[in-house]
Task: inverse folding
């Protein structure tokens, strides 16, 4: 495969707001998939994990196959047969071309549908998926993978990734906050438009949406804490509330929260989006930014109390619609000095 989008030399700027592509899954085009293929962090981790997990003679499912590159890695690792599912018809054609041109005709089957609508003729040894967003679960992987595990995976089969952990930390980033306030938002092209997305989601306030941005550790006001863990064992929750309390460790202007994730792809391969150095890569993942509308000056010793939650909207006009909410208080010596409430419910 050879793709060239002119992205290989682009570096992202720290604290630069980008369009939240995971909120627009059904509009993904070839330019975004090409970006994925230029992401060395993603590609190297998945290739190494697939080579470790997939053994010759195994039957594999690539759920959300896209360009087919993950499925190709599985076939190259010796998979006897590959099943590939994707809702995007253009991507399914692309994936088929990828498999055929690499000599694997007759060793794969493709399905152009939501995975919920697919029935496979046999159980598989491995389910590969890459439906990870900047918040970890913001591409709705919990119900998708729970259903896939139940219906498609052998009793002794393996999920790749095997687990994902989302982490949050309060930050001070005036630069990122000002961009949200003025609705400055970088995109891959003009078809990914912030105003249009806000209208589609029914959100009037730009602070009620999360964004993608690389937030360096120097902006942290406290220590990272686990917001949610996912083990893909059938018991994960798609809707939840996570109460967290962050002791402030440095003085600063509290402007919101940063989210990052750690995904265990296999026993020895971990995909971690926490590093500042991801700014030097053309990566599909940045950090998630959950802004607050009214920043609060905080001092060492203050407490930021957060209730972070995920739910589904009352009017769910897309299978991928979701609502995140982040609300809470800031206390100093036990006394309230500020509060915040942001919600994608609008």
Result:
């Amino acid at each position: 495969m050879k793709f060239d989008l002119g992205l290989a030399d682009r570096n992202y700027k720290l604290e630069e707001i980008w369009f939240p592509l995971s909120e627009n899954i059904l509009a993904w085009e070839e330019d975004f998939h090409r970006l994925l293929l230029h992401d060395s962090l993603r590609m190297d981790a998945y290739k190494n994990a697939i080579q470790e997990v997939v053994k010759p003679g195994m039957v594999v499912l690539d759920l959300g196959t896209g360009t087919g590159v993950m499925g190709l890695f599985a076939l190259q690792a010796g998979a006897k047969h590959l099943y590939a599912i994707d809702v995007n018809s253009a991507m399914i054609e692309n994936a088929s071309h990828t498999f055929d041109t690499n000599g694997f005709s007759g060793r794969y089957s493709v399905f152009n549908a939501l995975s919920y609508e697919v029935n496979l003729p046999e159980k598989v040894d491995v389910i590969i998926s890459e439906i990870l967003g900047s918040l970890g679960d913001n591409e709705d992987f919990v119900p998708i993978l729970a259903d896939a595990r139940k219906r498609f995976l052998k009793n002794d089969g393996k999920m790749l990734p095997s687990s994902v952990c989302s982490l949050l930390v309060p930050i001070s980033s005036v630069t990122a906050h000002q961009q949200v306030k003025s609705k400055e938002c970088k995109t891959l092209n003009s078809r990914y438009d912030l105003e249009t997305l806000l209208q589609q989601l029914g959100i009037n306030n730009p602070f009620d949406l999360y964004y993608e941005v690389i937030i360096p550790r120097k902006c942290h006001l406290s220590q990272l804490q686990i917001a949610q863990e996912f083990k893909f064992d059938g018991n994960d929750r798609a809707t939840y509330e996570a109460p967290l309390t962050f002791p402030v460790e440095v003085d600063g202007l509290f402007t919101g929260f940063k989210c990052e994730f750690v995904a265990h792809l296999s026993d020895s391969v971990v995909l971690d989006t926490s590093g500042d150095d991801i700014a030097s890569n053309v990566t599909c993942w940045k950090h998630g930014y959950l802004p607050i509308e009214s920043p609060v000056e905080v001092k060492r010793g203050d407490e930021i109390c957060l209730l972070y939650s995920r739910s589904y909207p009352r009017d769910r006009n897309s299978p991928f619609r979701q609502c995140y909410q982040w609300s809470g208080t800031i206390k100093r010596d036990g006394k309230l000095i500020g509060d915040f409430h942001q919600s994608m419910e609008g």
